[in-house]
Amino acid sequence: MRPGTECALLKAVLWALGVLPAPVSVLAGKGLALAWYLLDGKHRRKILADVERTPLASLPPREKKRMVRRMYLHYGVMLAELAKFRKWPAERVKACIDFAEGEKLREAAQEGNVLVVSAHFGNWELTGMCLPLYGVKVASVARPLKNPCLDDLLNSIRTRFGQKTMKKFNVMREIIKSMREGYSIGVLIDQDAERDCVYVPFLGETAATLTVPAKLAVKYGMPVFCVVSYRERPFRHRYRILGPIECPREEADAVEKACRAFNDAISRAILEHPEQWMWLHHRWRGADKKGLTRAAAAEGKVSG
């Protein structure tokens, strides 16, 4: 599909979901997601294979399949929510959010730069978009989409309440500039890292984990919080905030230990609500290629 056509189609879907009453919009979003689920056998099988790497492997087979189906439906609801949130005023969006756990984060952010580590979990776009509404001035690192039109559309949603976005590649200079301007820094850390990484457990399996957040925390002594939001029901989200996470700065392996701590925090959130994580990512691909995972060992791959 051409980029312009792809963008026009998404805009049309968001417009349609945006004008429908919220309950009908949710049903329509779920309908689209269910069709995707039924047609996407390749990714369903991939997700079920990845579940076997994690503590969720002990679930009954039927429950694993239910979890995957609920994940797709979760995306459908997320699409309906974004169609509304991109137009609703701030107070109406805030009425959909429980930020009761956020006081420590807010206090820390008002005292200086804070590092926020997060994941593609819950309605992750809402998570970053709404932090400024609670006194957390945040600049978030984002991977640019291949389609510039879609990238602009998504950034218009992300930034509408004051969140700043920074392109992921060669981003350190922009991060330092943003910190000097008083921003806290937000980074999603649950994707496979192609470079600047260490290999530490994620959901119990070795994964290539981005070191940039840990290096920032160790170098600048920034307080670190794991921040996610999860959906309690459509248009009702609760922020889950863990921290401050201890990052010992003086130890030789401080960066690796920090990465382990960040992954542990994200993993705990995922295991509480596994259907709300984006299992579509190839989270363990880099570690598999190096033969560092249990799955790679079972296939006879050698580390190198």
In short:
This protein has helices spanning 3-19, 22-39, 41-51, 61-85, 90-94, 103-111, 124-130, 148-158, 172-180, 212-220, 254-272, 285-289, 294-298; strands at residues 97-98, 115-118, 138-142, 164-167, 184-188, 197-202, 205-210, 224-233, 236-242.
Describe the model.
With 304 residues, the protein is of the alpha/beta class. Helices cover 49% and strands 16% of the residues. It has one domain. The strands form two sheets. A seven-stranded mixed β-sheet has the order 1-9-8-2-5-3-4. The chain has a two-stranded antiparallel sheet with strand order 6-7. The two termini are 38 Å apart. It has helices spanning 3-19, 22-39, 41-51, 61-85, 90-94, 103-111, 124-130, 148-158, 172-180, 212-220, 254-272, 285-289, 294-298; strands at residues 97-98, 115-118, 138-142, 164-167, 184-188, 197-202, 205-210, 224-233, 236-242. The chain contains 13 helices and nine strands. Helix 1 (3-19) crosses helix 2 (22-39), helix 1 runs parallel beside helix 8 and helix 2 packs across helix 4.
The figure for the number of domains is: 1
What Rg, in angstroms, do the CA atoms define? Answer: 19 Å
Order of helices and strands: HHHHHEHEHEHEHEEEHEEHHH
Instruction: Indicate the percent of residues in helices.
Output: 40-55%
Q: Tell me the strand percentage band.
A: 15-25%
Judged by helices, strands and strand pairing, the structural class is alpha/beta
Largest sheet: 7 strands, mixed
- The residue-averaged pLDDT reads 94
Shape: globular
| Topology, number of strands | 9
Strand order of the largest sheet: 1-9-8-2-5-3-4
Instruction: Name the quaternary structure.
Output: single chain
Terminal-residue CA separation: 38 Å
Q: What's the number of helices?
A: 13
Q: Unreliable runs, pLDDT <50, ≥5 residues?
A: none
